[in-house]
Amino acid sequence: MICISVTPASRTLAPADLLNASRQGDLIELCLDHFLKEPNVGELIRMVDKPILVSCRRPRDGGQWDGTEDERLQLLRSAIVAGPAYVELDLDIADRIPRFGETKRVISWTSLNRPLGSIDEIFEQCWKARADVVKVTWPTDDLDSAWPLLAAVTQTREVPVVGLGIGRSGLTFSLLARRYGSPWTYAALEKGMEAFEQQPTVFQLKEDYHWNDIDRKTHFLGVMGVGAAENTSAKVLNAAFRSLEKPIRCLPLVPGDMTRLTRMLAVMKINGMIVDPTFTGDISQLVTLPDDLARSGYADVLMQKSSGWTGVATLLPAVDLAGGDDGNRDWAGKGTVIVCGHSTLAKAAACYFSDKGAAMSLASPSDNSAMGAARAVSVRHIPWNGIHDVRADTLVIADAGIACGTQRGELNPSIIREKMHVVDLTAYPHESLFCDEARTRGARLIQPEAVFRRQMQLQFRLLAGRDLPLDALNDWNR
């Protein structure tokens, strides 16, 4: 089930939120702590035909209750009398609110500051508090912190366990909990209505990740990173797998300790991953890169083989293919190329164009970092304040931190000249101001959308061994 958290502040608008949530979810959490004035819970419950879970959380548990503790307990007791399907009770107050009627008790334990290594003791206490369901909430900033929470909901226990992960890996936890049979997954009705920061929306679960299709037979493809490309790639690949009726879905991954990742991937039975171009972690601890990629350390497709994990780069070949759509197939190896940036992706771009035969230069707002990057990949470094003196045929802007402008540390768009090839990866797969400047100045812009389409085709061919269904790319930019 999907449990949609509804957080109305107004008693007048609350019925509309409940009605909208009832159309999308299987269970509705009515968060009483957000109301400015005490609501009539019984009246609200009767307005929808979906089961209601009532909660009223303190600030220390992530809620907004600003009254006294006695007032909160009285509100929860009154809410139980109204007959909701479930009531959430914090572990420390469970013995002060007795069971009433047919309302089931969700005994909750929350830590907003740190995860625990094990919840066995907490589960035992919740069980003694006559829980029908145990709920555990804690930060899940990366896979390491989500791992104990996942272990909690996947073990067979006398009482079912639900979890709520707060942070960047909250979506990861929600998808894995669905895969392993957790009673329900929490979601917000829409952006701006989250009960917790970065809580996934019901639309994200259903439309982007096809949550309803996930079960114990589902295999996951890892998508490493937290950038725009990670979200968009997952959306496209999920649509492709669904179109082909393959039981495979993408799982966003934010690794913590890279040395532990291999074991976690094995437990989750993940043998393939794609990597967001902006990912800054050191994948060399996980994969063995071929010689042509080892110089930069960049790869965006990782595959497990009998000898271990290996990496493949698809973004720069996709740039090459998209740039040749006008018939000029060997454009990448011609003339002078300037790569702006010092990231792993910037180094990979410098390697790619250099290997194609172009006269390669690299520059960055941080001259020291740029010199180190240029030295690592054996290309020429030029000072940031001198890039306008170089007459380039191709400009590649490869770091998300490089802004378009005339202030110190920014890249002045006057460097873009007529008929110059411009590759803008700063907001990939979307466009930035550099794209607008390239069009205005008559440059040959290699559109990020065209690059993304090419890259998705290359990645899907590598991972699935067949062509990407064209309909999977139809709505990626919505």
Explain what the structure shows:
By secondary structure, the protein is of the alpha/beta class. The chain has 15 helices and 20 strands. The strands form three sheets. An eight-stranded parallel sheet has the order 7-6-5-4-3-2-1-8. Helix 12 (344-356) links the parallel strand 15 (336-340) and strand 16 (359-363). The protein is elongated, with a radius of gyration of 26 Å.
Total DSSP helices: 15
Q: Find the count of extended strands (DSSP E, 2+ residues).
A: 20
Strand order of the largest sheet: 7-6-5-4-3-2-1-8
Assign a percent range to the helix content: 25-40%
The low-confidence runs, each spanning 5 or more residues with pLDDT under 50, are none
General shape: elongated
What is the average per-residue confidence, as pLDDT, rounded to a whole number?
90
What is the CATH top level name of the largest domain?
Alpha Beta
CATH H level, superfamily name of the largest domain: Aldolase class I
What structural category arises from helix and sheet content? alpha/beta
CATH fold-type name of the largest domain: TIM Barrel
Radius of gyration: 26 Å
Percent of residues in beta strands = 15-25%
CATH architecture of the largest domain: Alpha-Beta Barrel
